[in-house]
Design goal:
single chain, alpha+beta, beta-galactosidase, domain 2, TIM Barrel, Jelly Rolls, 3 domains, globular
Length: 744
Amino acid sequence: MTPAQFLSPLSLALTLPVASLAAPLTATIATPSPATTGYFKLGSTRNPAGDEIGVNSRSLLINGQPVFPVMGEFHYSRCPATEWREELIKMKDGGVDIVATYVFWIHHEELAGQFDWTGQRNLHEFLQTCGELGLQVVVRCGPWCHGEVRNGGLPDWVQAHNDWKLRSTDTNFLTAVRALYGQIGQQLAGELWKEGGPVIGVQVDNEFGGAPEYLLALKKLAVDSGIDVPLYIKTGWPAMRRPVPLGELLPLFGAYADGFWENSLQPMAKGNWENFTFKFTRTDTGIGSDSLKPNVAGDTAGTEKYPHLTCEVGGGMPASYHRRMNYDPRDVEAVVLTQLGGGSSLLGYYMYHGGQNPAGKLSTLQESRATGYPNDLPVKSYDFNAPIGEFGQLNPQYFWLRRLHFFLHDFGAALAPMPPALPDARPADKNDLSTLRWDARSNGTNGFVFVNNYQRLQSLPAKPGVQFQLHLPGGDLIFPNEPLTIPADSFFFWPFNLELAGARLIYATAQPVCQVSNAAGLTVYFAAVPGIAAEFQFDPASLARAASPVAVFQKVKPSRNIAVTVQTRTGAELRLVVLSEADSLALRKNPDGGGVNFESPPQPSVLAVKLIPLQPAGLARDFAPDIRKPVAPADTDFTNAATWGLTLPAGLDLHQNPLLRLHYTGDVARLTLNGRLIADNFYSGRTFDLGLKRYAPEILTGDLQLQILPLRRDAPIYLTDEARTALGTAPSVAALQRAEIVQP
């Protein structure tokens, strides 16, 4: 087997012809121009320890050096304060560096002039907890947040002011916002970056497309309220009436695999398929299309002067009443990969941790069509099918993302300033299944190739005969040595010309995970791509020849043991470990730098729940023949719900937070405890889970009841094919297949 061709003065030894030149896929990579800076209007950037946050056009900086942090959204007011620490630890263990959180105005000043910052609304205590755990925070201040909250977060008394022009520089509105920001400033006092605290940034409003003067007025209100932070932020969508002056507010972007807000009964409505491709543009044309004017393809002029930062890469997606989303974990993972390949230098997830709406003083606090908003959401649940569920469940994408975050912590500083380079051949449209979706990020010498052969609800076939030819400034690199087949529905990234302890890894057909350094040398962990043999090729000139007689290692079998050892020209020892997919997802890097360990798969026990039928289902709700977007049922509709009493097993230990798991089919399911609604669920084909620890000890002996409304089989709602098939052939259904306790 001959080495890959790389005609470059950097690697003069690699000049032999490749084994096959069968139509490689090509991309041209230029030497990037220097990043620009100096025009960002930041607050105080230095903390008491002397660390300084900065920004240039490619990335965030710490002490002048590029960084690639991970940010995850978690709403403190949607989680009991007693659970914050445990859940934040899970986020940190998952590789999250920054916690993003909304301040929902209606959660704090539901009654005019009566602010509530107690219990799970205690923002200051939440920030203290983040700081104690070494997590930084971005506070999204509103006043309008959306977040599927009633009125987008505006209190009813604000919404009722027809004499005010909301979300504008209207004097009366800004006077009310000044009081809110003043309160937020008090909550942030002592927790700002300049004070040694965790708060590094604040966002003003959300998804605002009007005149920039409003956002600038909010920034001034924040500063006047003592909110002095390095980073002032806005969402990068929608297009504004006029751009915000350069450098005043950093735009952060997002991308979702599919949206609960679409009005269509079809999957992947509009342009969502584009988020499964690699592209230069940062704007997701589908976000907020229910309430915002349709976004047009392309970014606002001047966007290229900012780093590609994200705050809303979909960590999951909830079910609205009319559109019952049920993400496959791969939907999340593939979109994250395309954002990474597309140039992002901050991965921010919405949501990373699900939650539950708190109780309101005047009303329920969810978004609903009854309040004039476009969608109906569950009254209590905001699980979001996120990496961490509303009761702390770890969902499959948590582990895939954790593996990616380990990579970003070890290699992200090099990746962050690398711009993307798109290939010469790109998919023409959603139905172009033959063109491989890939791109590269590079500094002109080394980098990474990203491949996504996956799209939500549409299988992408295997792609045979694939080689990559990168036209680099120093010469062409073609790899791997022989064409290979990209498996169907796969996604991954591979390095090229990667410097490791003085050795130059020309390419690998395995995905880097993390590295561990000690006195003996450097160990680098890779994840094998299922269906592709792991192969590593080094530049022989970078190796100590006597100790490393070969530069190509082929068909490396996955194992937890060291698979490849080479001595570098610098005298260091480099060790490579290639893990199976399962082992790579089980890997945890020890925080003290002392190597890695592997988690054992959990083996939960399952216990039966006693069911007591109390009432059969009545008639299913009828829908008008021409209705296009049905409204969620009202409380009075539940008189027709099938109802069961639930008796939990005796001796149940709630300290381990067992889950009550309900397998059902129907329309909407509700759980009540002693007559009080504690959880609700729109049927989407997923199970209905309830964490029990939160309701201890009352739930052990209280009156726990389940209600399921019947659903017509022909209801005009979007369901996946699998969920609709599960409804069966009867005209309507409200069925409970089983109820169980899943005990960790």
